[in-house]
Write a structure and sequence with these properties.
Keywords: Membrane, Transmembrane, Transmembrane helix
Largest sheet: none
Strand content: under 5%
Radius of gyration: 21 Å
Number of helices: 3
Helix content: 55-70%
Order of helices and strands: HHH
């Protein structure tokens, strides 16, 4: 066989190891945290809910863009869902904090 004995049974070369995708999910969560804090600090209270909705939509678009950038179809829907759900939770906790800060006198 010579040099060809290292080829697998199907005659194809092995697939390259895919890049990790957890970093892209966490990047969307960080973007959501930054957007939530910025909205909480710079937007008046009566407009916060509307701007949080806009920011969550932007996080969803960012999640699609980041996951499309990986170029992997395996688990795409799950990764986008994890990014969007995490962004929703992060922004919810931050907005809860700003809401409680507005209610508590001090």
């Amino acid at each position: 066989m010579g040099e060809n004995e290292h080829v697998d049974a199907h005659g194809a070369t092995p697939e390259l190891a895919p890049r990790g995708t957890l970093g892209g999910i966490i990047a969307v969560w960080i973007a959501a945290a930054l957007a939530g804090v910025a909205i909480g600090l710079f937007v008046p209270g009566e407009w916060r809910a509307a701007w949080l909705t806009v920011a969550l939509g932007a996080c969803l678009v960012l999640a699609f863009a980041v996951q499309l950038g990986y170029g992997r179809s395996q688990g795409f829907t799950e990764r986008v869902a994890a990014s969007a759900l995490g962004a929703l939770l992060v922004m919810g906790v931050i907005s809860l904090g700003f809401g409680l800060a507005a209610v508590v006198p001090g």
